[in-house]
Predict the structure.
Amino acid sequence: MIKYYCFFIAVLSLTACVNKRDKSDFKSSFQPCDNNLRIERFTVFGSGAFGGDLLSAYLTDSTNFRMYIGTFDDAQGGYFCECHGDTIVVKEMKTTDSGYRKIAGTRIFSLKELKKQGKFE
C-alpha cells in the first residue's frame, strides 16, 4: 500500500506543476489572416503515446505585441482566428465525445488596441 501511495505522490508532483504559458518549446506557427498576424504554438507538455500534447497559443504580429490566447490539448481542440478589418475574432474549438467540433468560446480583439498596448506575454 505504501508503494502505491508513494507512486501516486510522485506522479502528482510531476504533473501538477505545469506552466501553461511556457514558451520554451516552439512547435509551430501559422498565419490565419492576410495581415501580419500569426498564431504561435508552444509545447507545454508532450504526452507521447498517451494522448495529445498540451500546447499554449499566442496571437502576435512579431513586432508590436504577443498575447496569450490559451492552453489546449491538441487531440481535443484548438484555436481558430478570423480577421475582419481591425477586428480579430478568436474562437476556441473543442471536439465532443461523438467526434464533432464545436465552438467553446469566442473573444473579440481590436488589432489597433493590441498594437497600442504593446504587451509581450
